[in-house]
Each structure stands twice: as C-alpha cells, then as structure tokens.
Design goal:
mainly alpha; single chain; 3 helices
Length: 136
C-alpha cells in the first residue's frame, strides 16, 4: 500500500512540521499582539464605562434623597400650617388664603412627576376622587 510507505510518511511529517512552525511563528509574532491590544483596550473601555455608570448612579441617588428630604420637609410644613390654622378656620368659618399650601402641593406634585416616583404620588389624595392615582 502506497500510503503506508515509509519514504512518503517522513516527507509528509517534515513538511507538516515546517508549515506548522511557520504558521505558529507568523500568528504569535504578527496577529497575537494586535489581538491582545484589542482585548486590553476593550477591557479599559468597559472599566471606564462602569466607573461612569457608578458615578451617575451615585449622583442620581443623592438627588433622589435630596428631593425626598425636601418633600418630607414640605409635607411636614403643610401639616404644621394646617394643624396650627385648623382651629382658626373652624372657629371663624371664613375663607382663608391657603395659596402657600397650594404652591407647596403643586411643587411636590411637579417634583414627583418629574422624577417619576409613583409611590410618593400615592400619598397625596386629590379631589375629585377620579384623579387619585392609587391602584386598587
């Protein structure tokens, strides 16, 4: 059988070794550094993007906390105004100027809608009842 002839096998092994060595040298010398550079640059881009996302997330959390703090303070101020003036309203039974309360509630609703916080909106009941945003 000619495929098992020893003379043919040694020449095939020799050329396989030469071609494989040349191919391996070309790949490791020319293409591998470019490939590693591309991987390193992608890794650095991912790290930079992750750090920017973290910074933006921290800023938004701080802003949300600040808005929530202002909201709670304004609601407490409205509650104090209503509690302090409730006796006067009930005893005199006259129309008082409550535009300060209206302005505070409008500012609260504006900030709540602006920052898409439906949980805070659920705590404010609106008149008429059809405007209430609470889900049943």
């Amino acid at each position: 059988m000619p495929q098992l002839d020893r003379i043919i096998v040694f020449s095939q092994i020799f050329w396989l070794f030469i071609i494989f060595t040349a191919f391996y040298t070309i790949l490791t010398h020319f293409f591998l550094p470019k490939f590693l550079t591309a991987l390193k640059s992608r890794k650095q881009i991912i790290e930079v993007n992750a750090s920017e996302v973290t910074k933006i997330t921290e800023k938004s959390i701080l802003k949300q906390n600040l808005i929530q703090k202002v909201l709670v303070e304004d609601l407490a101020l409205i509650k104090n105004i209503l509690v302090n003036n409730l006796n006067a309203i009930l005893s005199t039974k006259q129309n008082l100027n409550i535009s300060i309360i209206d302005e505070k509630i409008a500012l609260i609703i504006f900030n709540t809608v602006k920052y898409c916080d439906a949980q805070l909106l659920n705590f404010i009941s609106l008149r008429p009842k059809s405007l209430n945003l609470r889900s049943s």
